[in-house]
Specification:
- By secondary structure, the chain is mostly helical.
- 59% of the residues lie in helices and 0% in strands.
- α2 packs antiparallel against α3.
- The longest helix is centred in the middle third of the chain and has 32 residues.
- The protein is elongated, with a radius of gyration of 18 Å.
């Protein structure tokens, strides 16, 4: 659970390095939250049918607002943890902009997020795995 919340504690921290575990646990947390909110939204009867249908009522709109606010709240920490993952691989944080390449950008960043970081210290800081190995 600590790794899931670490990017939220390091909200605007674009410096240093982050382990794969930190990135993927944060990704898992966000996926769970979005699925729960989305499931609740579907349970209200919300429909995106352009020809009418059920709109779900005021509770559905409240859930959509909560989902939108959640997305805005995690936008900065999501970018920051990606930047720190690139730093862990001794790459510039500007590699995050690859996400904007149409069709393949997200896939390329996904591959980078799966890659292991450089062992030992690099120009962005000490290896985050070393502190854990020493029991710190």
């Amino acid at each position: 659970m600590d790794y899931m919340l670490m990017p939220l504690r390091r909200y605007f921290d674009f410096e240093g390095r982050s382990r794969r575990k930190e990135f993927w646990m944060f990704f898992l947390l966000n996926t769970i939250v979005v699925f729960v909110l989305g499931g609740m939204l579907l349970a209200t009867g919300y429909s995106m049918d352009p020809y009418g249908g059920s709109s779900g009522g005021p509770f559905a709109w409240l859930l959509m607002a909560v989902l939108g606010l959640y997305w805005l709240a995690i936008l900065i920490p999501s970018i920051a943890v990606q930047v720190r993952r690139f730093h862990d691989q001794d790459k510039s944080g500007w590699f995050v902009l690859i996400n904007f390449v149409p069709y393949v950008g997200g896939l390329i960043v996904l591959v980078f997020m799966l890659m292991e970081g450089t062992r030992g210290p690099n120009r962005y800081g000490p290896d985050p795995k070393e502190g854990e190995a020493r029991g710190v």
